Fold each of these.
Amino acid sequence: MEQNKNQSVELGFSNYTYSFNFFYDSYKKLCIDISESIDINKTKGRIYGFIAEFSYAIPSEEKKREFLRRVVTANISINQDDKIQELVSMPSLLRSQEIEYLKLYYRHYAVLLQILGEFTGELTTTLMPNTNIRQKEIRFSNNQMFFDKFTEFKRILMDALSGFTIQDFRIPISLFITYYFAYKMFIAEKDRIYIEAAIEALTVVLLSDEVLSLLARTKLLPEEKKYLIKIESEIHELIMRCHIRMNDSFSSMNVIPKVDKKIAVDRHLI
């Protein structure tokens, strides 16, 4: 008998745990790779590939098309940035060229991370763990590996920040920024506002002509060394404050152990 062409065909048995594990492993690897990369073309390619691979998990076709459009637009913007393409194609860069490249890189990197963070935020109804304000739109989910990969990323970030110096800030800062955008869907709105303002402030300082020109020099005056040490200390403190806010949000969302906060009551008023 000829099969009805309109009849849907499904597997009789499926083990979706492999798909969830593949997603979480891919997400963690993507975040680490783009944080460590300095090639904007490879970075945009990795993010584009990730979104194309997992866009099937967005229930809304309109949202799916929107993210694909946004990532394509970001790719075109990078491709048409003649200066960054000229610099990235060079086998080696002078220190002045490295400074120019870093400024261009982080400008495009911020756009890509914003898209990636919002994309994975949409997956909280499917592949990502869901918050209590969004309902799951799949019949089966297994989020165990999310916590494994989240912890691995957190450990890598902590190791990088423990050795952070302003002379070699790129990878630790990229890891920190990527970590925030990767998991911002589990951070309270008030903390997002604070952290994104902090990220903007620290990147403005680190990518300023004053700081980068000092970092480009091999010899510094004592006053200049003190200035860089001061900047390094301030950035460390700012990152620490952001970490506290992120962990508070993660705890309240059950991403990390939830702490039941006790509220002191003045019983003398009763």
Note: The chain is about 65% helix and 0% strand.
Amino acid sequence: MSKKSFIEIVPIFFDGSLGISDKEDYFLIPAKVASEMGYESIILSTPAMDVGKLMQKKHKKVNKDIQIIHIQKWISYLRFLFQYKDAVIFANDRVAKSFIACFFGKHNIFMSHQSRLPKKWWQRKIFLFFVKKFDAIKVSNPFEKEELIKAGVKPERIHYIPLSIDHEFFSKKVSTQRKNEIRKKYNIQKDEKVLLFLAHVRKFKRIDTVLQAMHILREQNIKVKLIIAGKDMLLNEKEKSIQEQAEQLGITEQIVLTESISQERAREIMNISDICVNSSIHEGQGLVVYEASSAGLPLCVSNIGSFTSVFTKSALFHNPDDARKLADNIQYYFKHPQIAKRHVTINKKIIKERCDYNIVTSKLKELFLKV
């Protein structure tokens, strides 16, 4: 008897790893779980554009059980899916090749990786037309589930399974000596507090709000530095760079830019930070916020459903464009360390109970058995 097939559709050129912890590699994990369940596990990498020589590498084995196949052209893609009429299909992201997967396979699952419904009415119509045809929808936070239910998706088809967080890794502390070395490297004085903004910076991350909050804190003589750990991608979106914005606000000396960093370096920076800040307009789950929580940082984050539905009473929230409220929230934690400590304890418990790797993979197995 031949193996059952599991096909995971990944809408980028995926070569077997996102370059993050194995316990957080959200494209690899579903295929790995399916393989452990006895499926012939295939990751179907479907980049929207031709990626040149990389496309010549048609097949790759992640390990002896998981195969990666790269397909860019629509005809080849549809032909491939037609061959697997009895497969379980797991489609990622709001792209056409993922949407169309609802018409293929014996059972199919969709994961949006976004929490909000599309803004424009016609986009919502298209989105819901396809989503309602999937056998199951995997969501990463309670807000996303409620949004889909309100839009008419049957509740029994929606499964809340967060992305896995390597909380054991991020909760490890570094030595005092290493902390001092990192503070010295970034020219952080002994009496300066540290805010951490961890992300590749695009417009929707609203770094402008965070920078404006830093300006407010500077005007109030609050000694604080902001570490922005990630690549500045704003110029690609025809926006002012972080450096330009900081210069205009007069806060250049309060800003530290690290560019892209490894998870090991991120953990070290978390160890010298006092608060994690995030001002995104939207997030699917927001892995870095969960990682920072695991490292023991209180959260000053935007009041989007992705965060408020999880950290309901254990974070301080602000509107993504409200720099004044963000600055006030930051000061509140500085003035009330016991409240910050209590919130951290609650958040660590949430992440361990919902996002532990073993818990997440167990729930994925349950989902794959149901469809």
Note: The mean pLDDT is 94.
